[in-house]
Design goal:
Helix content is 47%, strand content 0%. The chain is an all-alpha fold. The protein has a domain of 47 residues: Met repressor-like (Arc Repressor Mutant), CATH 1.10.1220.10. Helix 1 packs across helix 2. The protein is elongated and about 60 Å long. The protein starts with 10 loop residues before the first helix and ends in a 22-residue tail after the last helix.
């Protein structure tokens, strides 16, 4: 998992984050993660799979008959 460092955070902002975290019953670090998750990945974002389903629903959808090839794969030859 990635880690970041935030430099030059004002005392007022740090204090506000600690208060907000306490209100939500979590650590300051967990609160900052939650804030960043909400900002970077909002609930209303367009998801490609959902967008494709919505686009094809108006066209009647698509029924694909896909069968998996269950035959064993040949190993590669390095000669």
């Amino acid at each position: 998992m990635a880690a970041i460092t935030i430099r030059n955070l004002s005392d007022e902002t740090h204090r506000a984050l600690r208060v907000r975290a306490a209100r939500h019953g979590r650590s300051t670090e967990a609160e900052v993660r939650a804030i960043l998750d909400d900002a970077a990945r909002p609930d209303g974002r367009v998801k490609i799979g959902s967008a494709l389903v919505k686009a094809f629903q108006s066209a009647g959808g698509a029924d694909l008959k896909i069968t998996r090839d269950r035959s064993p794969a040949e190993p590669p030859h390095f000669e």
